[in-house]
Amino acid sequence: VQLQASGGGLVQTGGSLRLSCTASGRTFDGYSMAWFRQAPGQEREFVATISWSGNIKSYADSVKGRFTISREYAENTVYLRMDSLKLEDTAVYYCAADLSYRATKAPDSVRFWGQGTLVTVSS
């Protein structure tokens, strides 16, 4: 099971980025997929999650209205569109997957993790 995240980089405040996470090695039918982030010296925190159906989404309060999570079934990929980026969005972003939608909201519960991709927002 592998989750491959990409799309991180350096962006100025107010700018946009789109992160991608592609699953491989097994079928992810039925899996909810999520994004978490970890800033230097801080604990990993929930960012956004999307159910298998794509009909249910949830966002951390800090990113609501600015970030959008979506998924492409044919490519086994989940995206995180990040707009109006702020300095405090700087972090390593991780994608994750679990059969339980609820589990994808907590870093201690989610089963599968990808490697991180670094997002740096500068002024």
Task: Tell me about this structure.
It is a single chain. The strands form 2 sheets. Strands 2, 4, 5, 6, 9, 10 and 11 form a 7-stranded mixed β-sheet that branches. The protein has a 4-stranded antiparallel β-sheet with strand order 1-3-8-7, with no helix packed on it. The chain is 0% helix and 50% strand. It has strands spanning 2-6, 9-12, 17-24, 32-38, 45-50, 57-59, 67-72, 77-82, 91-98, 112-113, 117-122. The chain has no helices and 11 strands. It starts with a strand and ends with a strand. It is mainly beta and 123 residues long.
Features:
seven-stranded mixed β-sheet; globular; single chain; 123 residues; mainly beta; 11 strands
At a glance:
It contains no helices and 11 strands. With 123 residues, it is mainly β.
Sheet having the most strands:
7 strands, mixed
Structural class: mainly beta
Global outline: globular
State the share of residues found in helices, binned by percent: under 10%
Would you count the extended β strands for me?
Answer: 11
Beta-strand percent range: over 45%
Q: Gyration radius, to the nearest Å?
A: 13 Å
| pLDDT < 50 runs, ≥5 residues | none
Helix-strand pattern, N to C? EEEEEEEEEEE
Distance between the termini: 38 Å
Q: Estimate the mean pLDDT confidence.
A: 95
**How many helices?**
0
SSE blueprint:
Blueprint: E1 2-6, E2 9-12, E3 17-24, E4 32-38, E5 45-50, E6 57-59, E7 67-72, E8 77-82, E9 91-98, E10 112-113, E11 117-122
Parallel strand pairs: 2-11
Antiparallel strand pairs: 1-3, 3-8, 4-5, 4-9, 5-6, 7-8, 9-10, 9-11
